[in-house]
Structure formats: structure tokens, C-alpha cells
Specification:
This protein is α+β, with helices and mostly antiparallel strands. The chain has helices at 15-30, 35-38, 42-51, 57-70, 74-78, 82-89, 96-111, 120-124, 131-141, 151-161, 168-181, 187-200, 219-222, 278-286, 347-360, and strands spanning 3-4, 163-164, 238-249, 252-257, 267-268, 271-273, 291-297, 303-307, 310-324, 333-336. The chain is built from 15 helices and ten strands. The radius of gyration is 25 Å and the shape is elongated. Bound molecules: iron/sulfur cluster (SF4). Residues 156, 159-160, 201-202, 207-209, 212, 214-215, 218, 220-221, 226 line the site of iron/sulfur cluster. Iron/sulfur cluster is lined by residues 156, 159-160, 201-202, 207-209, 212, 214-215, 218, 220-221, 226.
Length: 361
């Protein structure tokens, strides 16, 4: 349930107008020069908004530039190969986003003449386009009054109005406030401004209130409640421990393409439980009746890979496998190490493969 910590309401006569004026004035002088702002199109807004989901601006910039260089328009993506799309996305994480862009691009070509629809409801029907992304495209690309309620906007407004809670009513209150404050002809600029303020000033930890253009309006600042608003979600990390097997045979490495789950479309290396039965487990990958020699090579460093809610401790062990009957079990393949860069791998595996290539020189 949403509670207002103060007696404030979004109906205060001057609040939304003052908020709008101060925010837009601040943005006019603090707007960052970002690649997706240099040439704004529905396509560039769409791609940048998807890339910016759960990812900071600094990380996104080189990916966005590479992407636009390789796929300058929707037709270019629609005709692309999934492997290439995922390889280009490698390192950005949450690969479902890239798969959804590809699916959406193909639908846009088939059903919308290759142009992103300028209707909120039609945009929402495309894979991977949620409320925030649809609102961002409608306002930034088409100038329509749709408030973007992303984590940044939610944090800023929650603090200004002293809203506590995490639920849907809070989301609606934020949206109502933003809808009232939004200037009709500057919807895109207003949305960008509030997201920018959340990214650079009203930070989730240690907000820079002294430099904030909204501090005179902000209830959380006045009452020193910034650390308590917005309420925090309880999130628990799931710990996993595995051995990562780097099985090398005649200049090739064993890998498998994942067909489903968060890594669908990516290639993975064999992993086994870290329980001391490594050699027995290897036979499940190269066949039980093989006559092969398995020789350990220098291992790589232990590391912990964080993704979604997982902290996955990986111990990469390298084996050279030679002899008769060295054939992969179902679904596994030998990939030539020299061609490994044309296959998409999760970034943690890619770093390990890079280290392996250096170690083998
Ligand atoms: S005064 Fe501080 S808490 Fe309030 S909106 Fe500005 S940065 Fe955020």
C-alpha cells in the first residue's frame, strides 16, 4: 500500500508547475551529449531505451554506437542472423533484450512497413516493449504526452512527494503527478530531464541534494528521508558453485548452443558440480566408451560471475583430450578455437576464452 509521509498532495496548486519549470530549466544547462540524442529517430530511441534497461549510460554508449554502425535501421536488423545479433550484444547482459529486438524488427517489417508504429498500444504488442519503452518512444520520437515511469522518475517523484511503498498504486501516483507536470509540447524533453536528474543527481544512494534544482520542493530532503524513500525491495542472492570445463581437442573446444532460458541463443561451456568427481563427469561430455587421454593443463583463475540474482563461482579447469572416440555427447560440439569469436558467449565465458587463448600462445 502507498502512503504519503507528508500532508502533500499532487493537487497543490503550484507544485507541478514549479516542478516542471525548475526541471526543464535545469535540463537546458545540464543535458549530457549522448549518442542517441545527436540524431533522434524512433529507431534510435527504441534501441537506446532497450539497452538502458538495467544498464548504466556509460556502459551502453559503445554498444549503442557499434549497434548503429552495424544495424543502421530496422530493415538491417530484421534480416540479420541471430548469432551475429547476440555476438554484438555480448557483454551487455540480459540477452533476451537482443532476441526481442530481432523478433520485433521482423514483425515491424512484416506488419508495419518497416516503421515503428506511432501508437502506444501497437508498440506494446511488440516483444520486449513494455510501458516505459513505449512511453519513451511516444514522447521522445513522436512528441506525445506519455510520462515515462522508470526507476529514476519513480525515485525522484517518490522523494519529492514523500511516497512510500513499492506497489502499483505508487506507480499510478507517480504517473499522475508526471502527467500533470508534463508540458504538452515538450513531453520528450521533460521525460529525458527527469531520467537525467535521477541518473546524475537524485541517485539511489547518496543523492546530491545540494546541487538539485528541486530541493526546495522536496519533502525527503527537508526531512532527511532520502535513505528511506523509496522503500527498498528485499532481494536475495542465490549462490552457485561450479567447475567450468575447458575441454580442448586438436585446436577445438567443446561447447553447446543453449536453446532456452535466459541464455537462449548463446553458446555455453560444460559445467559440473564442484564435488571432486571431475574426471568421471568429463565422460558425460565425451562419451563413456572413449579411449582418450585426458591431460590437465594449467588452470585459470577462480572467479565469481554475477548475473540477475545469481552469484556463480566458477573454477575454470583446462584439459587436453586426445585419442580415439573423442566425440561430444548429444548437443555438444567441437568449435574451432580460431573461429570462437563468431559465436556468441555470455561475457563471463568470453573473458575466460580470451584468457585461454593468451595462456595457449
Ligand atoms: S533534493 Fe535530493 S532527494 Fe530530493 S529530488 Fe533532489 S536529489 Fe532527490
Amino acid at each position: 500500500m502507498t502512503r504519503l509521509a507528508s500532508n502533500r498532495t499532487t493537487k497543490e496548486p503550484d507544485l507541478t508547475a514549479t516542478f516542471r519549470r525548475k526541471l526543464i530549466r535545469w535540463f537546458a544547462t545540464h543535458r549530457r551529449d549522448l549518442p542517441w540524442r545527436r540524431y533522434v529517430s524512433p529507431y534510435s530511441v527504441w534501441i537506446s531505451e532497450i539497452m538502458l534497461q538495467q544498464t548504466v549510460v556509460k556502459t551502453v554508449i559503445p554498444f549503442f554506437e557499434r549497434w548503429l554502425g552495424r544495424f543502421p535501421d530496422i530493415a538491417a536488423i530484421a534480416s540479420a542472423d541471430e548469432r551475429e545479433v547476440l555476438t554484438l550484444w555480448e557483454g551487455l547482459g540480459y540477452y533476451g533484450r537482443a532476441r526481442n529486438i530481432l523478433r520485433s524488427a521482423r514483425l515491424i517489417v512484416q506488419q508495419h512497413g518497416g516503421r515503428l508504429p506511432d501508437s502506444y498500444n501497437t508498440l506494446r504488442e511488440l516483444p520486449g516493449i513494455g510501458e516505459c519503452t513505449a512511453a519513451a518512444i511516444m514522447s521522445l520520437a513522436f512528441g506525445k504526452s506519455y510520462p515515462v515511469v522508470d526507476a529514476n522518475a519513480r525515485r525522484v517523484v517518490s522523494r519529492i512527494l514523500a511516497l512510500r511503498g513499492l506497489d502499483r498504486p505508487l506507480e499510478e501516483q507517480v504517473k499522475t503527478f508526471l502527467g500533470q507536470a508534463m508540458p504538452p509540447r515538450k513531453a520528450g524533453q521533460f521525460n529525458e530531464a527527469i531520467m537525467e536528474l535521477g541518473q546524475t543527481v537524485c541517485l539511489s544512494r547518496g543523492p546530491l541534494c545540494e546541487s538539485c534544482p528541486l530541493k526546495t520542493l522536496c519533502f525527503a530532503f527537508r526531512k532527511n528521508l532520502q535513505d528511506q524513500i523509496p522503500s527498498k525491495t528485499a532481494s536475495s542472492t542465490i549462490q552457485k558453485r561450479s567447475i567450468l570445463l575447458l575441454l580442448i581437442s586438436d585446436g577445438r573446444i567443446m561447447a553447446r548452443r543453449k536453446e532456452s532460458g535466459i541464455f537462449a541463443g548463446l553458446w555455453l561451456l560444460p559445467t559440473i558440480p564442484d564435488n571432486g568427481r571431475t574426471k568421471t563427469a568429463i565422460s558425460t561430455f565425451i562419451g563413456r566408451d572413449f579411449k582418450a587421454e585426458i591431460s590437465p593443463l594449467p588452470a585459470l583463475e577462480l572467479r565469481t560471475h554475477h548475473y540477475t540474482r545469481y552469484a556463480h563461482r566458477l573454477k575454470p579447469i583446462v584439459y587436453d583430450v586426445t585419442g580415439k572416440g573423442v566425440r561430444p555427447a548429444d548437443g555438444w560440439r567441437w568449435l574451432r578455437l580460431a573461429e570462437i569469436y563468431s559465436y556468441p558467449f555470455p561475457s563471463a565465458y568470453r573473458r575466460i576464452l580470451d584468457e585461454l587463448r593468451v595462456a595457449q600462445r
